[in-house]
Amino acid sequence: MTANSNNLNVGMRCIKYMLFVINFMFVLTSVLLITVGLTIKTIFSEFDAFVDDHFMSPPTLLVAIGFILLAVAIFGCVGAVKESTMMINIYGVLLAIIFVLEVSAAISAFVLQGQVANMLQRTMFQSLQKYDENLYVREAVDFMQSVLECCGVHGREDWEGILGPVNSTDASKEIVLPESCCEIHYPGDHDTECVWFTDGCFNQMNFVISQSAMLIATGATTVAFVQILGVICAFMLAKTIRRTKTQRALRQWQLQQSLGIYNKPINHYNPPYIQLNNSEKPKKDPDAQDFIYQPNSPSVN
């Protein structure tokens, strides 16, 4: 009996440790989702003049999923400590809900990835046209060209007619370019030389935005498949905990039976029979007559 009880206790500890390991993996996964989501959201925010508003939804959803997963992992650890099958089942349901959210984020990112090229073509050319009119757009364009070391959308020819011509015999300078298209060198002590960027910004912007969307899609898909395993393990662990607790209760009941310490509750409506001594028996009244039931006797009903 002691060996069986020890086996049950060891099995219960193994279940707890297994659930702790799974939740620890989910904690690391949640931190990774939050980090990736915030990083991509920062990238989109830096180039928000060229990115439509609905592109902010997938990274925001990824961050929200990370925080929810972190809370669910802590909830699962509490359920394991308390050995509560109800909490573990709720934990599994919450993981299933997170799986649906991750699939939604992955689908959104895959759909947006196919829209990146057309979006950038439209927003970048619109930004060049508003360069002189809007200070915010000007700062965004200058930031893009100086950081990515590029000029224009497909090349510096895209600036033709926007800032006006320059009276110069140098054909390469007939197009007026903003200072952000210039890489400044210092060949001498006080002289500066401007080297104009020749590559356009479209290819680099398309790579940055597309890869960010792909990272969201692949990351959410990978975590979603891991989440399925977590849901299955959660329900299996809840079933195992329930079976183990049932076996433990059965062992305790059998131990009480073998030691004779199991007491049947007293029924006050049916008290136990107590035999009386001859001296305690009531004396029969000699005048009383025994009642004998006859077929014609009145019924008690």
Structural notes for this entry:
Helices cover 62% and strands 3% of the residues. It contains six helices and two strands. The chain is rod-shaped. The model is unreliable at 166-172 and 288-301 (pLDDT under 50).
Structure annotation, total helices: 6
Radius of gyration: 40 Å
Structural class: mainly alpha
Q: Ranges with pLDDT <50 over ≥5 residues? A: 166-172, 288-301
Encode the helix/strand succession as letters: HHHHHEEH
Report the average pLDDT across residues: 77
Outline the fold blueprint.
Layout: H1 2-46, H2 57-82, H3 85-113, H4 116-129, H5 135-148, E1 182-185, E2 193-196, H6 202-259
Antiparallel strand pairs: 1-2
Helix pairs in contact: 1-2, 1-6, 2-3, 3-6, 4-6
Quick tags:
single chain, 301 residues, mainly alpha, 2 strands, disordered C terminus
Concise structural overview:
The protein is mainly alpha-helical and 301 residues long. It is built from six helices and two strands. The chain has helices at residues 2-46, 57-82, 85-113, 116-129, 135-148, 202-259, and strands at 182-185, 193-196.
